[in-house]
Design brief:
Elements (H helix, E strand, L loop, with lengths): L3 E5 L6 H8 L3 E5 L12 E6 L2 E6 L23 H13 L5 H12 L6 H15 L5 E4 L44 H8 L3 H4 L1
Parallel strand pairs: 1-2, 2-5
Antiparallel strand pairs: 3-4
């Protein structure tokens, strides 16, 4: 899909998200929409020994029900960073490329940025670097309602919806059966430099 695409901000989103970026020229990340709960905006799915595990970044509840995603602050009263890093280590320490990438990810998580959007942006750029993808990433300056346009993926990539992405099986740490639609972390830690070809 050459040209521009529109995506929501996301915390370690699934491979589908990066496949769209790879096949596009310019990426716009939505920052003006009202924040939506229980989406990839603040959560990701990894594969642990017990099965799929959801990791969520806690956010501050504002005085109103609606807040723009760019204004959403991370709640550091909970020790979520340590929980996430421990979960990632437990899930992927035996993966072939965990040692190559985990330190960079840990450093970003422990920076403790104030806003969720800033955390997601830095993680996105780092993952694109891991994938050797040089893409032009911009942010929206105003909100456009969803009109079902083919380049608008803000609400299509969701943990509540089935993915249209054709996941090809690859070897996972806990590989009794292949589990699709996981965070890009699963792909990067297991395939390393070959992760881009999978997309």
């Amino acid at each position: 899909m050459p040209g521009e695409i529109l995506l929501s901000t996301a915390y370690f989103p699934p491979a589908e998200y990066f496949s769209l970026i790879r096949n596009s020229d310019t990426v716009f990340i939505e920052q003006e929409e009202n924040y939506l709960k229980q989406t990839y905006r603040n959560r990701c799915r990894i594969l642990a020994s017990e099965g799929t595990l959801s990791l969520s970044v806690p956010v501050m509840k504002g005085p109103t029900l609606k807040a723009r995603v760019k204004d959403i602050e991370i709640d550091y009263s909970k020790r979520w960073q340590q929980v996430h890093l421990r979960a990632m280590t437990s899930a992927y320490s035996r993966s072939p490329y965990f040692q190559f990438y985990s330190e960079y990810i840990g450093k970003i998580l422990l920076k403790s940025p104030r806003f969720l959007l800033d955390l997601n942006n830095e993680l996105l750029l780092k993952c694109l670097e891991f994938l050797n993808m040089d893409k032009f990433i911009l942010h929206t300056s105003f909100f456009q309602p969803d009109r079902g346009l083919p380049q608008d993926f803000r609400y299509r990539i969701s943990p509540k919806k089935g993915s249209c992405f054709a996941s090809r099986p690859y070897i996972q740490v806990f590989d009794n059966r292949f589990v699709p639609d996981l965070s890009i972390l699963d792909l990067i830690f297991n395939l390393g430099p070959d992760a881009t070809d999978y997309l």
